[in-house]
């Protein structure tokens, strides 16, 4: 099995990138046109459930598959570093949403709704950049290990 499992996971992750980026585009549009408590909840569920599971697969399942395929010198920590940046933005967004759910209108003297929009967009932009980095740098770097077997 070995490397086939790695390829399978990378294919799944890449397909998810396409689906999730479409969802992100929809969320960005909705943030501008129809901001609501329901939308905020939907975005948070998307981040917690979909993006959270996606990150888990990268950090755990992919790492295990790489180990099983004998690829021990790929720097999985570099791949995971992007997740820490996203986690920091999510922590701040969760705090803002908590204030919003408590009925607050401002955060540090600024409009809370505007801060939620700004932070959500920051998350979405960082997520897009992260997916691009994975697809153009990390995933091809992993796939080269398969090619090297035939050299």
Structure characterization notes:
83% of the residues lie in helices and 3% in strands. By secondary structure, the chain is an all-alpha fold. It has a two-stranded antiparallel sheet with strand order 1-2. Strand 1 and strand 2 (110-111) form a beta hairpin. The longest helix has 37 residues, at 112-148. The two termini are 20 Å apart. The mean pLDDT is 93.
Order of strands, widest sheet: 1-2
**SSE string:** HHHEEH
Low-confidence stretches: none
**Largest sheet at a glance?**
2 strands, antiparallel
| Proportion in β-strands | under 5%
In percent, how helical is the residue content?
over 70%
Query: SS-based structural class?
Result: mainly alpha
By DSSP (H or I, 4+ residues per run), the number of helices equals 4
**How confident overall, as mean pLDDT?**
93
The overall strand count is 2
Alpha-carbon distance between the two ends: 20 Å
The whole-angstrom Rg is 18 Å
Overall body shape: elongated
């Amino acid at each position: 099995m070995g490397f086939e499992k790695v390829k399978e996971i990378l294919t799944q992750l890449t397909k998810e990138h396409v689906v999730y980026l479409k969802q992100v585009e929809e969320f960005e549009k909705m943030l501008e046109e129809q901001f609501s408590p329901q939308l905020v909840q939907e975005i948070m569920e998307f981040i917690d459930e979909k993006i959270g599971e996606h990150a888990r697969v990268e950090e755990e399942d992919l790492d295990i598959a790489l180990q099983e395929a004998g690829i021990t010198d790929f720097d999985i920590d570099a791949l995971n570093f992007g997740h820490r940046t996203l986690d920091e933005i999510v922590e701040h967004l969760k705090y803002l949403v908590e204030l919003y759910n408590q009925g607050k209108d401002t955060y540090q003297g600024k409009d809370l709704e505007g801060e939620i929009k700004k932070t959500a967009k920051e998350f979405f932009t960082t997520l897009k950049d992260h997916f691009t980095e994975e697809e153009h740098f990390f995933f091809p770097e992993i796939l080269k290990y398969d090619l090297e077997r035939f050299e």
